[in-house]
Each structure stands twice: as structure tokens, then as C-alpha cells.
Amino acid sequence: MQAIIQDHYGAPDLLQLRDIARPAVGDGEVRVRVRAAALHAGDCFGVRGTPFLMRMETGLWKPKYGVPGYDFAGYVEAVGKSVTRVRAGDEVFGACEGSCAEYTVTAEDKLAAKPSGLSFQQAAAIPTSGLAALHALRDVAKVQAGQQVMINGASGGVGTYAVQIAKSMGAEVTGVCGTDNVDMVRSLGADHVFDYRNHDFAAGGRQFDLIFDNIENRSLADCRRALKPTGMLILNSGTGAKGIKLLVRIIKPLLLSPMVRHTLRRYLSVPNHDDLVVLTEMTKAGTLTPVIDRIYPLAETPDAIRYLEQGHAKGKVVIDVGS
Ligand SMILES: NC(=O)c1ccc[n+]([C@@H]2O[C@H](COP(=O)([O-])OP(=O)(O)OC[C@H]3O[C@@H](n4cnc5c(N)ncnc54)[C@H](OP(=O)(O)O)[C@@H]3O)[C@@H](O)[C@H]2O)c1
Q1: Which of 219, 250, 265 is the last residue of a domain?
Q2: Residue 279 lies in a domain
Q3: Ligand 1: which residue has its CA nearest to atom 14?
Q4: Per-residue pLDDT tens for 215-262?
Q5: Which atom of ligand 1 is nearest to 181's Cα?
Q6: In angstroms, what is the span from residue 322 Cα to ligand 1's centroid?
Q7: Domain check: are 230 and 311 in the same one?
Q8: What is the pLDDT of residues 140-174, one digit of tens each?
Q9: Ligand 1 contact via 214 beta carbon (within 6 Å)
Q10: Are 309 and 249 in a shared domain?
């Protein structure tokens, strides 16, 4: 099969399109013929191996999985023993380790039936970013109807889902994004949109019950100024700093949180079948629509990573793996 191969950490130029053996399918696993993959910020870190802390997950000295991409949509080609939910030929979407390839393997619990009304490209755009938004808003923040929710980075992969999910939970949503994306974020349902180029959300205007911060370009003090007295700040990036500064950025809110009235949280979103079904139902109900910025052919995955690294994607960057 054709796959994008990553032998070492480094610039996206090191990625190569090569022929390799199809991955073996184990007990409880499903092998999928990938029709579309999607990338997210984590793929950029995984390709470069920075921040170094990420290597605890992706392999200390060289990439553990060798193929980038976490998200896919395609059809089931083979199932391992004890798989009960799907069978060969089913259209599915989900998360895996290495979706920038014609075939990938994942646990049965990390996929679900592809939303019937969506293309493979749209479905592939959902898992990691959609679940990250769902887990933050539903499980960490437990957003209630009527709450004032601000999404920083509302036009990005996670943000475009977060705006729609927060809105469907009945929140009054404020999105923060750049000038070019204001109309798009409003079209997703945001009640208010701040253009970060001319509006400082920390300048002492509106205060929020929840800030879901996908950018982390502001200090904790700035963010807390924009929170109501018992509001919550969910930090969902932490990657703008390096070395000791990165550690401080990760640990400081966790140490501070018990000492202040604000709740300061980080979280890790883990893909699972049931929540993919929740997102599927939302697409069917018309409350969730993937926003796709660009679609690249598999061979141009390095260009897709380079584009994503610039930090200005409008929604998701998708890889067309072909039929
Ligand atoms: N906790 C978890 O388990 C989990 C899971 C998935 C992802 N994440 C994290 O979530 C974060 C966001 O990921 P993503 O995929 O959404 O990133 P992304 O798609 O690369 O976000 C890019 C967006 O950010 C906007 N942006 C750039 N600078 C901004 C600023 N100063 N203020 C407001 N918006 C700005 C850009 O809009 P403009 O072009 O207008 O600037 C662009 O639309 C990443 O750090 C990722 O690691 C965490």
C-alpha cells in the first residue's frame, strides 16, 4: 500500500510517499481502507518531535508509528477476532495511529459508522477536533444553557466544532478569530465575534462563565480578567512556549487553581466509539457541520503539514487518499 512515511523527527520535507506492507489486523482491531484522512495541530508536533514532551507519546528518539495522521474515514476491509460492531464493507470514521496511508488499523472502540449524510472527506475532518471540543464543553466545563462561553481560536480545527457544540448546548457563544474568519465563525452560530486584530478580550469588557482557549497566546492573568468570579478557563494548547517556560505554562494553572475562585483546567481528549456516535447524531440533526479549509492529495501531505503549521487554517485540513 502507499503511505506517507516518517523515519525521523524533523521538517515536513522528510516525509516520503512509499510502498509498504498493509498493517496486520489484531484481536479487537479493524483494518480500514482509508478514503480520507485529516490532520490537526498534534500532527505538526508529531512530525517535528517538538515540543520534546510530546515524545513521551510519539517515541523518544524516533517516531513510534512511522505514519502521520490520527483521523480517517473509509470502509472496513478486514476485522480481527472478537470484533462485533462492524464488518467488511461498512463505511466508518474514527481515530488511529497513522491515517495518511491507504490502509490503517485501529481498535474497534475508536471508530463508528460514518455519518450517512457526509462525504468521506467531511467525516474524516471530525474525530480528533470534534471530540476535543465535545469533551471540553460537555465533560470538563459541563456547559449549561444560558452560560456565557468564549472560544479563543474559534476559526480553527477545534474552535469551529466548539462554537457549534456550545451553541447546541444553549450557551451564548463569543468566538475570537482574525478578520478574515469573522463571517465564517458567525455563520457557525456564534452570537458575538471578536476580531483579535482590533478587539482585546482581556481589556475589561464582557466576562464569561467559560473561556475555552485553543490558542494560549495570553497570560493567565489576562484570561482570568475576562472570567466571571467563579468562571472556568480550559487551556487547550500550551505549545507556544519551549523548555522550562512550557513546563511552567502547563503546571502553573494546575497549581494555582485550588487557591483561586476560578477553575483552571487542562484535559486530554481520548477518542471513543460512543462519542463519535454523539457527533454523528449532531451532524444528522444539522447542529454540527465540519468546516474544511483545504484538501490535499496523499502525496502532498508535507505541504498540508506546512500549511497547518502556519497556524491560520480555517477549520480542518484534509488529505484525500483516493479510491
Ligand atoms: N486537549 C486535547 O486532547 C486536544 C485535542 C486536540 C487538539 N488539541 C489542541 O488544540 C489546539 C487547537 O488546535 P486546532 O486544530 O484548533 O488549531 P488550528 O486549527 O491550527 O487553529 C488555527 C486557528 O487559530 C486562529 N488563531 C491564530 N492566532 C489566533 C489568535 N491570536 N487569537 C485567536 N485565534 C487565532 C487562526 O485564525 P486566524 O487565521 O484568523 O488567525 C486559525 O483559524 C492545539 O494546540 C492542539 O494541540 C488538544
Answers
A1: 265
A2: no
A3: 157
A4: 999 999 999 999 999 999 999 986 667 778 888 888 899 999 999 999
A5: 40
A6: 27
A7: no
A8: 999 999 999 999 999 999 999 999 999 999 999 99
A9: yes
A10: no
**159 CB under 6 A from ligand 1?**
yes
Residue 223 lies in domain: 129-265
**Are residues 170 and 194 both part of a single domain?**
yes
Find where cell 521538517 sits. 11
Q: Let me know whether 27 and 120 are in one domain.
A: yes
State how beta strands 227-235 and 208-213 pair.
parallel
pLDDT-derived band at 204, boundaries 50, 70, 90: confident
Number of domains in the chain: 2
Is 278 part of a structural domain of the chain? no
For ligand 1, say whether the CB of 129 is within 6 Å of any of its atoms. yes
pLDDT digits (tens, 9 = 90+) for 64-117: 889 999 999 999 999 999 999 999 999 999 999 999 999 999 999 999 999 999
Assess contact for 37 and 102: CB atoms under 8 A: no
The verdict on 192 and 315 lying in the same domain is no
Q: What kind and span of H or E run contains 248?
A: helix 243-256
Q: Domain holding 19: CATH number?
A: 3.90.180.10
Phi, psi of 291 (to 5 degrees): -105, 120
| Burial of residue 231, with CB atoms counted within 10 A of its CB: 0-12 exposed, 13-18 middle, 19 or more buried | buried
How far apart are the CA of 318 and the centre of ligand 1, in A? 16
The whole-angstrom separation of Cα 52 and Cα 61 is 10
Q: What is the pLDDT of residue 250?
A: 85
